[in-house]
Design brief:
CATH superfamily: 2,3-Dihydroxybiphenyl 1,2-Dioxygenase, domain 1
CATH topology: 2,3-Dihydroxybiphenyl 1,2-Dioxygenase, domain 1
Helix content: 10-25%
Distance between the termini: 35 Å
Strand order of the largest sheet: 1-4-3-2
Order of helices and strands: EHEEEEHEEE
Length: about 130
């Protein structure tokens, strides 16, 4: 069996797609791009990704089949220094739940909440 990463893709479910796109573009300093849903049931905006590189790609997804919320899976975005992205969260309309803290030899993490109520993390080695 071929070894692979545990995560191959992620969806962050949202109610207001435009609001969520603006939030993540502001916090992560990137541009999301529309992608098609073969079923035609879901609107999706993809985070920048190179599917041949290490890690996982993903999208913001607005769907009648799932909703955003607290207490589910937490996605951690990679950063050079998570304090930089953390500093953009409140200006973009989100909430910093736990400012940058050490996770020992694994680096640093900030825990935040987006405009849709989803909790997400930002992870860095410095």
């Amino acid at each position: 069996m071929t070894k692979m990463n545990a995560i191959g893709w992620f969806d962050i479910y949202v109610d207001e797609l435009d609001r969520a796109v603006a939030f993540y573009e502001a916090v992560l300093n990137c541009t999301l791009a529309p992608i098609g849903d073969p079923t035609g049931e879901t609107q999706m905006m993809s985070f920048p990704a190179d599917m041949s590189a290490y890690g996982a790609g993903g999208a913001l997804s607005k769907s009648a089949h799932a909703k955003p919320g607290i207490g589910g899976t937490v996605v951690y975005f990679s950063a050079e220094d998570c304090a930089v992205e953390q500093a953009r969260v409140e200006t973009a309309g989100g909430t910093v739940l736990r400012p940058k803290f050490s996770i020992g030899e694994f680096g640093w993490v900030s825990l935040c909440q987006d405009t849709e109520g989803n909790v997400f993390g930002i992870s860095s080695m410095q």
